[in-house]
Amino acid sequence: MVEKYFWTNGARLLKLGTICERRFQEGGRMSSERPGMALQLRSLVKGSGELELSLVSIPVPVPGPDEVLIRVEATPINPSDLGLLFGAADMTTARQSGTAERPVVTATIPDALMKAMAGRVDRSMPVGNEGAGVVVAAGTSAEAQQLLGRTVAVVAGEMYSQYRCVKAAQCLPLPPDTTAAEGAACFVNPLTALGMVETMRREGHTALVHTAAASNLGQMLNRLCIEDQVGLVNVVRSEQQEQVLRDQGAKHVCNSGVPTFMRDLTEAIVATGATLAFDAIGGGALAGQILGCMETALMRKSGEYQRYGSTTHKQVYIYGMLDTGPTLLKRNFGAAWGVGGWLLMPFLQKVGPEATRQLQMRVVAELKTTFASHYTREVSLAEALQLGEIAVYGRRATGEKYLINPSRGQTG
Amino acid sequence: MVEKYFWTNGARLLKLGTICERRFQEGGRMSSERPGMALQLRSLVKGSGELELSLVSIPVPVPGPDEVLIRVEATPINPSDLGLLFGAADMTTARQSGTAERPVVTATIPDALMKAMAGRVDRSMPVGNEGAGVVVAAGTSAEAQQLLGRTVAVVAGEMYSQYRCVKAAQCLPLPPDTTAAEGAACFVNPLTALGMVETMRREGHTALVHTAAASNLGQMLNRLCIEDQVGLVNVVRSEQQEQVLRDQGAKHVCNSGVPTFMRDLTEAIVATGATLAFDAIGGGALAGQILGCMETALMRKSGEYQRYGSTTHKQVYIYGMLDTGPTLLKRNFGAAWGVGGWLLMPFLQKVGPEATRQLQMRVVAELKTTFASHYTREVSLAEALQLGEIAVYGRRATGEKYLINPSRGQTG
């Protein structure tokens, strides 16, 4: 019956059903697999203006009565992890030291950006939002005990660790035929895709524009919008990315790299009626261009001169920062517009636990279809700190998606 | 009892009280003052890429049963009028022709901006949002008749005219001791100032930042915030403007022209707790700087590192475009932020007729104090089209505020 627990609000699970009596029979059982020390990946911003990435050996915690110990087997490197991992460091300055088993990466943080790092200076920080693994030890509570041996997913932070001790209530037990790798990314991307469509509905829009649309998340959103019959305009940056999405059934794909981009985007917006966009790029002119094309589309429909432009509200939410440069808004899109930040956690807090639970139920039901993630490479913790690998996953390039398997390689 | 009518939703009045029986006794009376022709200022964008401003002679309408004819005596040149007046023309190219009585001003519209003018090409457009004057003719309805001889204010558009025929229900009769000049600007600026404070309250903020704060509107907002004990950070661009506001009791005034501006602004935001700004500038870095200073202030209060920045929503509404260049957002202010357009009319539509009526009642009650407007110069329609005058009011310079008196000078 444990499948009836679902994560909510980033830290808690909702109990949906009753607990099997079986749990009491198993009470007090403790796995033998709990090593004394294990590795954890750390990111440290030094007051001297350097970023240091390393593996540290930390004592493996003993679970409290309502806790479980997870042997982490799969944890994705999401774009949302890179901010904490790299801080404001210029990764082109990265240099390698340490050993193959205990690599150390050092990079320079530009002086001007150290101010933004003030809150984390000289605090060694664990990384990794979400992941999955096997529960190898459990506290005495029935809730913890019944997870023993199960493969579970969590969004608990500090997942780039060989072992992670969390509340039993934080765990999302995966269906029996699901591997840790399949379940590792069942929170951030799936709930973000669902959150975008849900935001669209709640704010009165009927179709979406999405940038960096060939990303893992973008492909997921494309599948979701096809399934839910929601109009989606996919903005990509290359012909190859365009083909990836078209092969997956995307109807509207606009390549920002071709001269006809603005016209293509306007036509796709006319066709879908999109007045909301989610932008992963952040910097540059794109957010403003989308608003401009929306305005052109709206004015074409209305046909008459309105001195303050269309009265229909046009919104762009910036949820990523693939381009960390300034956002440039030409404001050639009337007065009914908004640009703002969008993050998953505040969205989930706003919609509340019941709505979050329903979104999460859908993710589990469609984990191998709509919400499947695809990885180009699986690495150990030590491999994740090799300059060659950082150069690849650090590019945030579409199509390159890494999965860390901390249980591979040496022990702590 | 006519004072109990109030304008709402930009076009209609709410009837608050009963109508005097007297109205029936006066039914059918018609003033003798209704000339055959009168002047109206027009703005014409030609397909050739030229803007032409001129005075045209038009027949003075005969009021319908529920209409009145106003002899316009005072109509302000608000920043919100200049957009329609000048269109996208480059006014540094303006040249004069015609006569002193019938001046014509021609200016070039840059090719790149003609697209935005498409909706108004070759359509001669009247200008002037709001104004006041004397009702010199009235239709047969009681509502119209009882306004005869009264000084009334309207926000009806086309006010840069010697005569303006409107529905009686659109008129706001001014108290007997109030002149047309005093009542000419009793809609746009007063309701905008009130709308800003009301938006602050409705969206959960407790203090405000305002840019171009020494403007007529800014001084009004300053008086309103002092009266309502709302924290206000006034951002100005010169020492002289700073002094103007300090002389009027402003507590927080930050001069963007001095090197300590960002520090000053941050301290003022810390002191007031402002998380909402209204920005009349639009272009450049200022909107983003305000968000950055808000974020610094919030993070200082919270004291701990949050990877996505403060979770408190920070908002800037752009309601003017003193700088028509692009808005530049560095996004060094976390994820809980928004920038958007704000206009008076959509705001009034959102809050609805009853809330609008209450705001309007307050304006009338405080028309000679909180909501008083000050003008640097009064001109006739013909004088308003002299290059020398355009050079002054077209600058949108703080402290320069023009009032047109169409009843001065020649007739149509």
What would your notes on this structure say?
Two copies of one chain form a homodimer. By secondary structure, chain A is α/β, with parallel strands linked by helices. Chain A is 30% helix and 29% strand. Chain A contains 13 helices and 22 strands. In chain A, strands 5, 9, 10, 11, 12, 21 and 22 form a seven-stranded mixed beta sheet that branches. A six-stranded parallel beta sheet of chain A has the order 15-14-13-16-18-20, sandwiched between helices. In chain A, β6 and β7 form a beta hairpin. The longest helix of chain A is centred in the last third of the chain and has 22 residues, at 344-365. Chain A is globular. The two termini of chain A are 35 Å apart. Residues 1-32 of chain A have low confidence and may be disordered. Chain A binds chain B through residues 83-84, 116, 118-120, 123, 282-283, 288, 299, 304-308, 311, 318, 321, 324, 326-332, 334-343, 346, and chain B through 83-84, 116, 118-120, 123, 282-283, 288, 299, 304-308, 311, 318, 321, 324, 326-332, 334-343, 346. β20 (337-341) of chain A pairs antiparallel with β20 of chain B, so a sheet runs across the interface.
